[in-house]
Amino acid sequence: MEELLEMITWSQLGIHEKPVGLLNVDGYYNSLLTLFDKGVEEGFIEDSARNIMISATTAEELIKKMEEYAPVHDRVAPRQTWEVDQLL
């Protein structure tokens, strides 16, 4: 869970522009996805930030969605040059 949220945060900070994929087999993550959607509904999460995380019920569908991903969210901090050794 911590790693999932960290990757979403890194996207918001501009460290990477990749989608964050969640393979939701048998609805295992439905409650988490509902929590994120409720956060958007209540104004705690920007819709564009919610779209950083992509979910699907099959690996094939998830890969297709990730290939089609284009970042549209606003960064929450000025873009900086991030070096891997700075993040460790």
TrEMBL record:
- Write the protein's name: cytokinin riboside 5'-monophosphate phosphoribohydrolase
Any Pfam family: Lysine_decarbox
| UniProt similarity note | Belongs to the LOG family.
Top-level taxonomy? Eukaryota, Viridiplantae, Streptophyta, Embryophyta, Tracheophyta
Which EC numbers does the record give? 3.2.2.n1
* Source taxon at top rank: Eukaryota
This chain's function reads: Cytokinin-activating enzyme working in the direct activation pathway. Phosphoribohydrolase that converts inactive cytokinin nucleotides to the biologically active free-base forms.
According to its UniProt record, which reaction does this protein catalyse? N(6)-(dimethylallyl)adenosine 5'-phosphate + H2O = N(6)-dimethylallyladenine + D-ribose 5-phosphate; 9-ribosyl-trans-zeatin 5'-phosphate + H2O = trans-zeatin + D-ribose 5-phosphate
Q: Name one GO biological process term.
A: cytokinin biosynthetic process
What is this enzyme's class at the first EC digit? hydrolase
Keywords, ordered alphabetically: Cytokinin biosynthesis
What GO cellular-component annotations does this UniProt entry give? cytosol; nucleus
Q: Name one GO molecular function term.
A: hydrolase activity, hydrolyzing N-glycosyl compounds
